[in-house]
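FAQ: What does a ligand-bound record look like?

Like this one, built around zinc ion:
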Amino acid sequence: MSAGIRVTVWNEGIHEKELPRCQAVYPDGMGKAIGQYLEQQSDIASVHYSELADPDQGLSDAILDNTDVMTWWGHTAHDKVTDANAERVQKRVLAGMGLIVLHSGHMSKPFMRLMGTGCFLKWREYGEDGEKERLWVVDPSHPIVDGVPEYIELPNTEMYGEPFGIPQPDQQVFISWFQGGEVFRSGCCWHREAGKVFYFRPGHETFPIYFNEHIRKVIHNAVRWAAPVRLADGFIQGNVQPLEKME
Ligand code: ZN
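The answer part, i.e. the structure of the complex:
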């Protein structure tokens, strides 16, 4: 996309207002921590910040018309996103918009609609400091791991464990190991009609994970991977005339 990628960072924006520990780690909010690295990249044309409390929940047609790739962080208010807005996001993805679903977004309405499965998992928040996680690259050929080390170590995380109720990913990019013994498919790619979806596990409202340089690089790479691909003249679905003369 020579013109640059237009990103919308959608953030629920509730923990930042209610949890002192979240405010301490993300004084400007998680959305800003996710978007500020993207803003500095030459291939990113724009970063728009949307929150649940915004008019139209930050998902108006005007915003979506200016979005090539959306990142999604939600946790405590998945049910507050209207079904109409979830359907709008889903349809945009089917039409080509990229969607990067982060951490607890695994139970968000747009992601669950696009997966068509339960999307549940195991989880554990171990004490104040959580536990160690290593995200192992399992596909060194994938563009999402360009410039990323063999594994990313996060000293303080919330555990997510298998089985994860997702459809088999089209491409598996990362698998996590946790100190407590569990493993998790923490970086997964799917194609949905003309659109691409990447689920990326890291990120919790009380840990500074979205400031980690490797996590930021993965999100930027994922935005590039998920950016829309456009055919020269679009494509047609429905009833068409034959291209060749048929007797
Ligand atoms: Zn969490």
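Follow-up question: can I read anything off the structure? Yes, for example: Residues 213-226 form the longest helix (14 residues).
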